[in-house]
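We examine the record.
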Amino acid sequence: MKKKVGVLLINLGTPDSPKVSDVRRYLTEFLNDPRVIDISWLGRKLLVNLIIVPFRAPKSAKIYKALFDSNNGVSPLLEYGEILKAKLGDKFQNEDVTIELAMRYGNPSLNEVCARMEKAGYDEVIVFPLFPQYASSSTGSALEKALRLIRNWYVIPELKVISQYWDNPGYINTIVERAKKYNISEYDHILFSYHGLPVRQVDKVYEDRNCDNHDCDKEINEENRWCYKATSYATTRLIAERLGIAEKDYTVCFQSRLDNEWLEPFSDKVVEAWGKKGAKKLLAFSPAFVADCLETTIEIGDEYQEIFEKHGGERVDLVESLNDHPLWIDTCEKMIRERL
């Protein structure tokens, strides 16, 4: 008898709409996750519910409106997630494999999707968070919630997990293909901009609680292979090698910080510095994101463009995320098949 398999794709999430109420609901769920803001329960509740969300929701709603408006009124992260789900479904249409998509925060919710999967009665479930580099606040949070829901099923099937794939050849190849539309030699400098994390979160990977002691910007080793900073630098080296970009011609940087205790260098400050140096054209990669979203389209594409122009630069070009590229679809299919 053939196994009946369910594949659970998980991405971060998006508000249902740019309305302030929807953005407020999304941010409340997102920022109250103890893996995202890893402080005491009471401190997190006071900080998020009384300070961050009330002040940030109206501002974020305007930014989300710009994002939705740039993509025909829908979230690109959700749109590309649905396309990935559909195209992977086509790949497995003659097999007993069902592809599901859920968001860690917002809709389609993990609760609803996991409830539907329980009723389907799978023999095996593959949980596939769509984050190339492991971080506790992204992959860790998605896996924790999915497995917490699944553990309450009366019949718990065989489970397999894809935790990270920063060095997957298909993932790297897709980024390289995306970059081929740009003449890299025309740019004054290249940015590899990853979503930021509090320094304390990468420190927690290590027994000595100090990421700086582990050569994370130079090599991947037995100790740092689960460190987000280390895998971000390693991803960059793989892409740069394939594209022939010398180390002196690029900078690994981190965006979307909430305070100055996050991973450095900060992407916006790198953009500003290159503008002041007289650079006219920058090219930015966002390898931590498999689908274009607020952080790529708006933060890099619009906000960093404004910063660069303000300090003398002319253009910041953004290499598109993996989105619905055929190589990315094939890569996901292969990763799934390797676990069947």
